[in-house]
Design a protein that fits this description.
Helices cover 77% and strands 0% of the residues. By secondary structure, the chain is mostly helical. The chain is elongated, with a radius of gyration of 34 Å.
Amino acid sequence: DALKKALDTIRKAGFEPEPVTEQADSDEHADQLAQGHGGYFRLVAALVIAVAAEAVSYFAPDTREWTAIGIDFVIVVVGVFVGIQAQQWSNEREQRRLEHVYLERVLSDINLSIETNELNIARLTANSEGSTLVLESLRRCSLPVAQRDDFADGLSDVAKVGPSVFVLSTMEEMLSAGNFSIIRNQKLRDALNGLA
């Protein structure tokens, strides 16, 4: 009954109450609150300002001088908070810019890795004919004179099988600079971490 009255009062005030649900990623949500939106710092600062305003109101006489001091105090505090908020906003923009730069560089590294490995595959495919000639000649224990040069080329290419290549320069830079957590998407971070 008390809950129903409270909900009705909230609706009369112009708000629509919504049930609170647990989030599966509550830790991540709490981190975002604390970092991205000023979070706990802003709440504590607001509490301190409210207590200070109440203290001034309680202890100071109701005169023009104290009113002017209170207004000056509020102006200074609001200015400080606006400055802090602007700095946080600037830092957040810089992190998003840096994240974008890193992701573009990682994509470039991946594309370079794909191109390099495709060239290696094409080279190995071209060399496979010479390797086949070497193996067949060794099995038969005979080599026609006309194929001696092809056999020599194939024999030299047999040992030229290199490992696959993956360019990790950007990933290594991010890890060494401690900037890996700048990537917001957890799934993408996990995938990139698997590559490193």
